[in-house]
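ok so i was messing around last nite and threw this chain in just to see what happens. nothing serious, just curious
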Amino acid sequence: MKNVVALTLALAIVLSFSIVRADEMLNGAGATFPYPVYSAWAFDYSKISGTKLNYQSIGSGGGIRQITERTVDFGASDAPLPPEELNKDKLLQFPAVIGGVVPVVNIPAVTAGELRLDSEALCKIYLGEIKYWDDKQIKSLNPKVNLSHDEITVVHRSDGSGTTAIFTTYLSEVCPEWKDKVGHGTSVKWPLGIGGKGNEGVANYTQRSSHSIGYVEFAYAEQNKLSYVLLKNHAGNFIAPSFSAFEDAAASADFNPKKDFYLWLVNAPGKDAWPIAGATFILLAKEKKDSDMKVVKFYDWAFKNGDSKAKELVYVPLPISLKDKIRAYWKANGIY
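result:
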């Protein structure tokens, strides 16, 4: 009898421990764009709260799908969902941080910031109309750069991707031919090129493929020591990707909580604005109040304590005024 009681007590303790551990785990999935900063925030948050974040960096398309199917506590997407789509799937949405998508190249003897491109040249490269690095249109932008007659290897995302959504939304805005032939979205029918999964995959393929061009979130360019290009912005200036350039792009943003913060930041008007900037968003299921409150508690902590880490990784923290709008949005939806 004593053995039965002891076994029952042991099982109860194990079950109790399992429940506590489950309560201490948040499950999220989606965008690879913010993965470096979410990981850093999660590490620091777990030390002070005991709550761990299990975040699957599977791409925005996967994040949208998983929160729509209610298999995670939150989804993450760099492509904001319009209010009508959120209403249909009973979702909430708010921005978490702002960053930049950066064209990167692997051209022998060409260093970071040496190559200049404008929107037309970038568009024609991804359409396959500019095939070689010494094309006259590229050479006219780079008269002092030694460009050889080597074929351009185009690298793009193979998965549903918010980074792709930002990149193709930019191309659609600045290049009518792209808009007509390809369009924009988390997944598009690429005219050519090789596909990599996640920002990690594009960075890896670009690194391994000589004379290639790809696009990644800036943190991945930095971490993998990829050569970024200078890009001509809306104001006509050639800009290097940087914290201040992303911040300048974000300065023109007017996020509206009445529209669930739906907004694109591409081709911003600032004199020094990086032209392919974007916010990354968190998606919550309206009816999952308990888990929503735990997710919100994490991001509220990050908004209060995570700005320096975001800046260190070259992401732009949200302005205080926007954070206050988000808190009011949480409160209006009963999760704060």
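not much to say yet. The first strand starts at residue 25 and ends at 30.
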